[in-house]
Amino acid sequence: MRITELTDVVHFEIADLAAAVRLTRRLAPRWTVSLHERRDVNVVTARLRQHSADLAVLLRDLEAWVEEESLCAIRFEVDGREYVLHAGEADWRSAPRARCA
Q1: Dihedral of alpha carbons 33, 13, 37, 16, sign
Q2: Which of 1, 10, 70, 78 places its Cα 20 to 30 Å from the Cα of 36?
Q3: Cα-based angle 17, 13, 42 (whole degrees, multiple of 5)
Q4: Could you tell me if residue 17 is left (phi over 0), alpha (psi between -120 and 50 degrees) or otherwise beta?
Q5: pLDDT top residue among 30 and 100
Q6: Cα torsion 43, 98, 87, 69: sign
């Protein structure tokens, strides 16, 4: 994910499509959001509102969601820079498993 210009959007990388849909639904009441399915990762994009603290509000909501989903951490990008948001602990019992052929 490489977007180098300053923008009013935040991109979140979510590996699991179902989780990406849940995040999209969670954010939709407050932000304009979209979900882009890619071969390797799903990207949820949220457009920031004009409020000066909107990014902080969005990231606090995301932090709560990451903990609720037991994801441990997700990558996100804002203004062309990538970050990792950590929250809670991973639930390894629900981790996807590789299929044996």
Answers
A1: negative
A2: 70
A3: 35
A4: alpha
A5: 30
A6: positive
